[in-house]
Amino acid sequence: MSDHQGSSQIKVFISAIVMLVVMWMATGVLTYIIPSGTFDGTWVPSDQAGISFLKWLGAPILVLFSDSGALVIAIILFLLIIGGSIYLLQETGLVEGVILKIAKRFENNAFQLMGILILFFMALGAFVGVFEEVVPLAPLVLILSRKMGWDDLTGMGITVLACGVGFAAAVTNPFTIGVAQQLADLPVFSGAPLRALVFITVYIVLFAYLYRHAQKHSTVTGLKAKMTETEDLFDKVDSEVVSASPTTPPKRAYTFFVLVMSVMLVYVLISPFVAWMRDLSLIVIALSFLIAALGVGMMTYGAKGGVIKRFLKGAVDMSPAIILILLATSIKYVMMEGQILDSILYYVSTAMMGLHPITAIVGAFFLVMLLNFFIGSGSAKAFILMPILMPMMDMLGMGRQLGILAFQFGDGFSNILYPTNAVLLISLGLTQISYGRWLKFILPLQVMLLILSIAWLAAGYVIGYGLT
Questions:
Q1: What distance lies between CA 10 and its chain's CA centroid?
Q2: Which residues lie across from 44 on neighbouring strands?
Q3: Can you give the pLDDT at residue 451?
Q4: Nearest partner of 61 among 289, 327, 391, judged by Cα
Q5: Of 300, 301, 297, the residue nearest 250 (C-alpha)
Q6: CA distance readout (Å), 338 to 27, 43, 61, 276, 382
Q7: What is the phi/psi pair of residue 37, to 5°?
Q8: How many alpha carbons fall within 13 Å on the CB side of residue 336?
Q9: How far apart are CA 43 and CA 41, in angstroms?
């Protein structure tokens, strides 16, 4: 690692730490300002006045022993295993070899490749509900992005960003649409035609945004680059791969890697529809990468080639992200222990009841966005919000499908914005992109998606979406 890379990693780590500590402290203060209570259709005030100082101070550790502690620990182990596996695969030269072959295949059709990848990752989120599982692919596509002459932000946009907005522009996402419609007493996946149109418009906006960004920051300018420029680029890539990878994996290593990854992909595609498979998805993905990395490492270096040492080096490099994850999850812990999360829901929902229908549905959209800052799980938010949103839809004479649409917009688009989202934190950690740099890149797109969301909600109200 160069001094510049080391300095960049330190800056990424410190900026994220400072931001999360400020949020953690501010949340604790709010528990002494906002009245505590519980809200489950009926508001029940509580005598509690703020969170205890010991729980506030110890939140980053106590969260490990809370109801969500198992998930936090699973995410940490997942990060370490994936980090070690990716590092080992990169050391063998296999990743560079695969990426180089793909890059050469599309060297004269770079933006065709971009369009295909964006559609693929968006579809994973929109139809299957994949989001967390895309994290291990971010570093791989980042390398591909560099080989195509694009910057790191374009690579993140193609993978995590595309999957995240696809999750929000959902058509048959079982975690948001499926759960929410069941709770709303609607046929599962009903109302899909309008949501399919939403998916198409979001795809067009995202592709145009990344296309424009890539053109501005590309080392190969224009949709049809000159052959000499392209050849020079790939000659440079060839020499980089040779110099960076003194060892070359045997062909059987590539076959083994593709086989393991194919099995993992099939599992990921099936898991959202099978409960026990969904519960084990993170474990299976981590084990798949571990098996693939160790297998390729053994085939490349042999039994005494320092495979375990290289794996541990990659895991250690990822370990600072553990602190970020603990701080991020402690914010929700402080709100729950201070009993102010239900209070916020009560005050906001009460204020929305006297509004114009369009204003109310847009307000519901913003309410879900607010809650998403603290609770990333779409299914969990559905259980919290459906008892509030559905009666409001009925009282305002709007179709319940419109409430589902507001819910999915608010739940998904902000996933790739909030620093409290573990998937975003892990992805930025794996790719070494600072949150500040990511925020500057993502804000214009967020504004576009915000306007598009409000436009679709207004259109849904005008056409009576869900009333017939």
A1: 23
A2: 38
A3: 96
A4: 327
A5: 300
A6: 9, 16, 16, 33, 22
A7: 170, 180
A8: 14
A9: 7
Token pair of 187, please?
């046929």
With tokens 């001094």, the residue in question is 3
Half-sphere exposure of 391 (CA within 13 A, CB side): 10
Secondary structure (DSSP) of 166-207: HHHT-SS-IIIIIHHHHHTT--TTTTHHHHHHHHHHHHHHHH
Residues with Cβ within 8 Å of 332's Cβ and at least 6 positions away in sequence, in order, are 63, 68, 341, 374, 375, 420
Q: Which residues contact 38 (CB under 8 A, 6 or more apart)?
A: 44, 46, 339, 342
- Euclidean distance between CA atoms 173 and 408, whole angstroms: 9
Rounded to whole angstroms, the Cα distance separating 171 from 198 reads: 9
Q: Are 281 and 268 in contact (CB under 8 A)?
A: yes
Q: What SS3 class is residue 36?
A: coil
User: pLDDT tens digits for 166-207?
Assistant: 999 998 887 788 888 888 888 877 888 899 999 999 999 999
- Note whether 310 and 106 are within 8 A (CB): no
Nearest Cα neighbor of 188 from 401, 428, 374, 423 is: 401
Instruction: Count Cβ atoms within 10 A of the Cβ of residue 451 and give its class: 0-12 exposed, 13-18 middle, 19 or more buried.
Output: exposed
The pTM of the full predicted model, rounded to 2 decimals, is 0.68
CA quadruple 354, 351, 398, 466: dihedral, nearest 10 = 170
Determine the Cα–Cα distance for residues 423 and 164; give it in Å rounded to an integer.
10
Helix axes 307-318 and 281-301, enclosed angle (nearest 10)? 140
Burial group, residue 77, by CB count within 10 angstroms (0-12, 13-18, 19+): middle
Residue 408 to residue 381: CA distance in whole angstroms = 10
Q: Which residue has the higher pLDDT, 273 or 315?
A: 315
Within 8 A by CB and 6+ apart from 81, the residues are: 286, 287, 289, 290, 315
**Confidence (pLDDT) at 103:** 65
Is residue 243 exposed (0-12), middle (13-18) or buried (19+ Cβ within 10 Å)?
Answer: exposed
Residue 44: φ, ψ to 5°: -125, 105
Q: From 302, 304, 292, select the one nearest 87 (Cα to Cα).
A: 292
Q: With 0-12 CB in 10 A as exposed, 13-18 as middle and 19+ as buried, what is 42?
A: exposed
State the Cα angle at 401 between 350 and 162, rounded to 5°: 100
Cβ(379)–Cβ(175) below 8 Å: yes
